[in-house]
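Q: I'm building a small set of examples for a reading group on sequence design. Run inverse folding on the following structure and report the sequence directly after it, with nothing in between.
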């Protein structure tokens, strides 16, 4: 390989490293360097979040259980799902919950260019605003796979990226007790919990596992003295 080819290869690898660098923060030990990005907020409680909705079966069932428990949560909506089920999307806001952006299509952003990522996020943001009348503040990439381009795209649209500190792996379905065990592994004061109210990218009917797990989580949160809140009440306003 001649010098020119080596330089071109090095440049390409460098660009790739910049593109995927945020994943190290999202999934690895560097996550601790960005607690706000990970969803670490005010002490005394946790933020409860749901991805992949709205869903005509899963979302109403989750909303009913949240109402029974007296909880308010944040729902990260997919634009494609909002267009398919607009009434369900509106029901989330009508019930007093916060809505946020999960993108238009549930595709890994490590495989998308910055421009493509921005078009995807912008389309979802526009439809969520149009259908629900809400003004989303947060963005979470599908699979939590933020690239440098994704972070730029979200920021350019006025959205703040946020992940989670504990997840239930509820997309797999199965016993609700497994969801509890997964959440407990990462559960801490001031953290953010990720669940799903839709099975559009998950095991069919997995939202039933989520609904069944909510009372179990309620008992655990109560035992630890943790209040449940949406992200808008969990993370203080970012400094300008």
């Amino acid at each position: 390989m001649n010098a020119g080819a080596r330089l071109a290869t090095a440049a390409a690898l460098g660009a790739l490293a910049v593109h995927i660098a945020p994943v190290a923060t999202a999934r690895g030990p560097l996550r601790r360097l960005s607690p706000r990005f990970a969803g670490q907020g005010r002490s005394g409680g946790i933020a409860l979040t749901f991805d992949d909705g709205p869903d005509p079966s899963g979302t109403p069932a989750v909303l009913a259980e949240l109402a029974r428990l007296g909880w308010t949560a944040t729902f990260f909506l997919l634009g494609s799902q909002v267009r398919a089920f607009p009434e369900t999307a509106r029901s989330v806001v009508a019930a007093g919950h916060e809505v946020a952006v999960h993108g238009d299509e549930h595709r890994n952003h490590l495989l998308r260019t910055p421009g493509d990522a921005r078009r995807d996020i912008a389309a979802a943001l526009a439809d969520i605003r149009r259908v629900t009348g809400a003004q989303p503040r947060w963005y979470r990439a599908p699979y939590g796979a933020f690239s440098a381009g994704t972070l730029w795209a979200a920021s350019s649209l006025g959205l703040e990226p946020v992940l989670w500190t504990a997840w239930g792996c509820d997309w797999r379905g199965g016993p609700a007790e497994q969801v509890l065990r997964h959440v407990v592994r990462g559960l801490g004061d001031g953290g953010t919990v990720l669940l799903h109210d839709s099975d559009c990218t998950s095991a069919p009917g997995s939202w039933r596992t989520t609904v069944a797990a909510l009372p179990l989580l309620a008992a655990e949160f109560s035992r630890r003295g943790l209040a449940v809140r949406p992200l808008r009440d969990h993370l203080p306003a970012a400094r300008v």
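The chain has a mean pLDDT of 87.
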